Amino acid sequence: MLGVSRTAEVPRLASNWRATIDDYPTALAASRDAGMLVVGTSGGLLVGIDAASGAVTWRQECGGVLAVSFGPESIAVGGQDGRTRIYAPTGALLRELPATGPWVEHVAWSPNGEYLATASGKVVRLWHADGRPFLETHAHASTVTALQWNRRGTELAAACYGGAYLWELDAGANPRRLPFQGSLISLAWSPDDRFVACGSQDCSVHFWRLPTGRDSEMSGYPQKPKALAWDANSTMLATGGAPSVCLWDFSGKGPEGSMPKELAAHGAAIVGLAFHPRKALLASTALDRMLCVWEPRKGAQPIGRANLSDRPECLWWHPKDTSVVTADASGEIACWRVEGARAS
Amino acid sequence: MNGSKVPVTVLTGFLGSGKTTLLNRILSENHGKRIAVIENEFGEIGIDQALVINADEEIFEMNNGCICCTVRGDLIRILGNLMKRRDKFDHILVETTGMADPGPVAQTFFVDDEMREMFKLDGIVTMVDAKHVWLHIDESSECKEQIAFGDVIVLNKADLVTPEQLDQVEKRIRSMNALARVHRSVAADVPVPAVLDVGGFDLSRALEVKPTFLEPEYPFEWAGVFELDEGTHALVLGDGPDPSMSLVIRPMPAGTRNLTEAEDEAVARLYATEERRVEPGMVLAPGETHWVLRLATKGAKTFPIRISSAGLYALYTQHLPEELSLSLRQETAAGVSVHAPAFTKTYAAAHTHDASVSSVGIRLDGAIDETKVNKWLSKLLREQGTDIFRMKGILNVAGSDARFVFQAVHMLFDAREDRPWGDAPRASELVFIGRSLDRDALERGLRACLA
């Protein structure tokens, strides 16, 4: 309870803007130039928001949204009707990809926008930017629970029961399997492409060093560590699964045998974690409906906090300044200004 | 966290047992509930006020291999998403495939922190095809598990069998699961509240349904009451399957003609005492003796019984009289007369019991020591949790004026103090449902916890 009393002294973050979309947001993505946000909801709403002002610029009705990815030119939306839809940044529906059966739970544009990856049930599909099908993987051991490209855009990682699979962009290629005896529920590829970290259903975090294949496990989390975030230098991995953020040090020899640094301020389980894409700033959200911002290299106390209206759902750092955007279950989208952060 | 948890009903049963019929009945009845259905078998139904989602059963075993941590991954994903909808649901129905083990479905709502936070498991409803269940009940472990896990068992298609056959199925089901409420139905016509508001995992309702404790098992199969004169009578036995048989003969309490359960219990205790082995020709006397008749020789064997005062006597035999051509005779001047019993009773023999899946109910009057019982139960579940599907109980804990209630699904254990005993008679009651349960060991275990 030490952490809770401390937060009283933590400065409250001021908001740049707030927007309300009146539905439960399930996914948020930003355009490559960070000028625009798009939010999808469980009820089937897709909303374009101006990232600078918070003004809602357009609304589109679609099926219940499970995933959104903003490519260089268009927005991919995965839905509960088993379809992937492609929208222009203006909100106009460009095309609908052929139905793939189960829910489309993950969509991910490759870094250069050449391919779109979608996960529907146990199968991952790759599509050309114009919607032509390109590749289809074999059925994974279970429904795919996470999908992420590496930074170079050469490989695609899919997590599921029994491990993570790294797919190269060659037809007929066999994936590289990162084996795990259990169910993986999240995946985070380090920005230097050297590590893949996964949260698992059995309350542990597993990571693999891709160059050597050596893997390790961090166990003992009280809850499922679904939230994972790498810092920009790939030297810190932040994990949820507890009311404290656990920070594992990946500099030097790595975290084996070390204790994590714990960031305690939340009163309930962490559900969202995001590092600023350039600065050593970490944002965390938890079931206590609080947002905390940390400078983990400097101290174990938050440098700012804000109360959200409901359970936090989405978290995004503006890459060009130090503002952070949250979306909560009430449908409130808020942009919080982080001041006094001198981290570089 | 906020608000009340959404109740979940798990609907299980073999293909063709009537799950879909029950589902349709629930969805079409005007009960005012908004229901979401997670279906796993082919076929889609669309009905107003309900959402039907098809899903593949995805069983997630955990890294540590612990059976009680095995959960249904598809439910975690789908229900997690379902709760993000504005149009909230009052009730969730999960239909399993015919071959499903209900364990992982039930455990999902206890093991997974998100599911535990949002949902509460209300009950497991097992549909049983009254006619075809005999095809599976002996061989299929899934069929046994589905029956063993059920809070409510719907004995469906009752019109396809005779009343005797129906009784027989019900008896068999109750021998496997003494805790379930059994409803008989034709075309799944059970009242909706009987399946949607069960409270099967609600601790305060833990033993609200009094378990139908199994018919007691006795070490004897038959008893007869005979009116015997003073003098010598003869117990004559032919050739039988066993080289010996145990027997008790004792005078009936004054004024009684019929054998009561108290009598049976008293004799059962005698059967546990040291036996007196007798060869043919040796004389038996009524009383508190556990006789074992040696029957190794071929042909008719006679054991004289000396009666010193005329009256009613009860004869308890390990086997049925017809198995051994047993008779009680008296030689008189007019010849040999065979006594006909004034009253007879047969008993369920322990050795005919279903050894694979069964229920064991234990009742104990004395107060239980809390530390001892905690230790015993945690060790028991740790070692035998795989075979113990479900357990429920009320404990009379020494030094406490309140009932202590608990339940377990495999190794997952949930317990707390409940309402005070008040004037109600204090007793501990435990029911275990599982595979290869050892009644004696369980009873000894609980007895050792007496304060």
Task: Report on this structure.
The complex is a heterodimer of chains A (344) and B (451). By secondary structure, chain A is mainly β. Chain A has one helix spanning 2-7, and strands at residues 14-20, 25-30, 36-41, 45-50, 56-61, 65-70, 75-79, 84-87, 93-96, 104-109, 115-120, 123-128, 133-136, 146-149, 155-168, 176-189, 195-200, 204-209, 215-219, 228-230, 236-239, 244-249, 261-264, 270-275, 282-286, 290-294, 304-307, 312-317, 323-328, 332-337. In chain A, the strands form 7 sheets. In chain A, strands 14-15-16-17-18-19 form a 6-stranded antiparallel beta sheet, with no helix packed on it. Chain A has a 4-stranded antiparallel beta sheet with strand order 1-30-29-28, with no helix packed on it. The two termini of chain A are 31 Å apart. Mean pLDDT of chain A is 94; it is low at 1-5. Chain B has a 7-stranded parallel beta sheet. In chain B, strands 13-14-12-16-10-19 form a 6-stranded mixed beta sheet. Chain B has 451 residues and is α/β, with parallel strands linked by helices. Chain B contains 10 helices and 24 strands. Chain B folds into 3 domains: 6-202, Rossmann fold (3-Layer(aba) Sandwich), CATH 3.40.50; 222-350, no CATH class; 355-447, Hypothetical Protein Yjia, Chain: A,domain 2, CATH 3.30.1220. The longest helix of chain B is centred in the last third of the chain and has 15 residues, at 370-384. The two termini of chain B are 39 Å apart. The interface between A and B is medium-sized, with 31 and 23 residues.
